[in-house]
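your task:
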Amino acid sequence: MKQLLVILGCFLAFSCNSQKQGDEKLIGKWESSLKDSKTGSPIEKIVVEFTKDGKFMQYVGEGKMQNTVESTYEVNGDKIVTVEKETKEKTEGKYTVKNDTLTISFEGMENKFVKLR
């Protein structure tokens, strides 16, 4: 009986931990260009970072004009759900990872990111 409880406890701990971490293929920094929602033309550089502990950072722009947005994220099937730290705004987008390319679809726009090394 005691062994069963230990096994059950381990199973619960591992399942909670893996759900929070999300998809291991997402972990790291990814670079792209923000697109204009009307024209689809690139506007400025964006780097997104997914961490193992559920943090999601967005670095928009470059140099002194760079803006940083802190959020948390979780993976739900083929979707990334983010919650911005400051505004508590929740967003959801579909994603795929193929080799070193992350594709995120959000509000009808598709953005491709290349993994930084």
